[in-house]
Amino acid sequence: MQEATTSISPWYVVYVKSRHEFVVHDELLRKGMEALLPSYRKTSQWKDRRKLIEHPLFPGYVFVKVPAYPGAFLYVLKTRGIVTFVSLESSTPTPVDPEEIASLRLLMESGRHVEIYPHLKEGTRVRVKNGPLQNAEGILSRKENDYLFSVNVELLGRSVAVKISAEDIDAA
Fold first, then answer.
1. What CATH number should be reported for the domain whose range is 11-109?
2. What was the pLDDT predicted at 132?
3. Does the pLDDT value for residue 117 go beyond 70?
4. C-alpha–C-alpha distance, residues 71 and 75, integer Å
5. Which of 58, 96, 126, 137 fits a 20 to 30 Å CA distance from 150?
6. CA angle, corner 77, sides to 71 and 82, nearest 5?
7. Is the Cβ–Cβ distance between 152 and 139 less than 8 Å?
8. What region does 131 belong to: left with phi over 0, alpha with psi -120 to 50, or beta?
9. CB atoms within 10 A of CB 64
10. What are the structural domain ranges in the chain?
11. Tens of pLDDT along 66-96?
């Protein structure tokens, strides 16, 4: 396939099979497509060793720049491991804002430690998914730079809160 990507070609997001992010990324590159898979390294612990493992920043998704020629979307969809393009309201793939891609690239190239935060607003009801508070439900709030997990006792008109890592919570 000829190299047909241009700087005006829009970026899209593809949803991929479980744990196929790196396979899809490599396949797209092999096909001559421009692809982006933001990732971070995290130490995994086993009984006998520790190892630094690469994890996708957005599990289940890969960014791809789709060139403007007939059949390009189908060519991308036929890539091993791709399920579908992400779309918001219709069956037509929704392009990603180029500024978001540029900022994401700068963030990844900076070499700085990246922390993952769920897209949750203050006041959202959340459930703890890890640690000693696993399955507890409460309200998310912020105090300065920290996330707080609060449990309200309405009858008493009181709340208790603990600091919590954003990666340990999900929307309830």
1. 3.30.70.940
2. 85
3. no
4. 6
5. 58
6. 170
7. yes
8. left
9. 29
10. 11-109, 125-171
11. 999 999 999 999 999 999 999 988 889 999 9
* CB 22, CB 37: distance < 8 Å: yes
User: Locate tokens 């607003």: which residue?
Assistant: 121
Closest CA to 86 of 15, 29, 161: 15
Give the CATH number of domain 125-171: 2.30.30
**Burial category of 141 from C-beta neighbours within 10 Å (exposed 0-12, middle 13-18, buried 19 and up):** middle
Q: How far is the C-alpha of 49 from the C-alpha of 59, rounded, in Å? A: 25
Q: How many CB atoms lie within 10 A of CB 145?
A: 5
Residue corresponding to tokens 């890539």: 79
Nearest of 75, 112, 108, 73 to residue 93 by alpha carbon: 73
Secondary structure of residue 142 in the 3-state scheme: strand
pTM score: 0.70
Q: How far is CA 137 from CA 53, 128, 134, 140, in A?
A: 30, 7, 9, 10
159/84: higher pLDDT: 84
Handedness of CA 53, 168, 132, 128 (dihedral sign): negative
Asked whether the beta carbons of 149 and 126 are under 8 A apart, the reply is yes
Residues linked to residue 164 through DSSP beta bridges, in sequence order: 147
pLDDT above 70 coverage of the chain, percent: 90
